[in-house]
Amino acid sequence: MSLLITLLFLLTAVTGTGVALSRTPRRQVMAMAANGLVLALLFMALQAPDVAFSELTVGTVALPLLFLVVLASMRMDRRAKRPDAE
Questions:
Q1: What is the pLDDT along the chain (86 residues), one digit of tens a residue?
Q2: What one-character-per-residue DSSP string does 31-48 give?
Q3: Which of 42, 46, 55, 63 could crosslink 8 through cysteines, CB 3.0-4.6 Å?
Q4: Is the pTM of this model over 0.85?
């Protein structure tokens, strides 16, 4: 069990670094979702299923979905403000 937890901690560090080093917003959102999934797995391995379920719901699904909606909204606004879009 300790090997699994060690691997999950390393994977958490890798995905967290991926979030910090991503340049484009879409990649950051996808990396953030991956980080949330790894954190949910880590919490399950640490026998905290309620925290794992919350992290899975919020960190892996809800928050990245919100960010993607905002990015799409910004893209639509940018198209609407162009003078040649008419």
A1: 799 999 999 999 999 999 999 999 999 999 999 999 999 999 999 999 999 999 999 999 999 999 999 999 888 777 777 766 55
A2: HHHHHHHHHHHHHHHTT-
A3: 42
A4: no
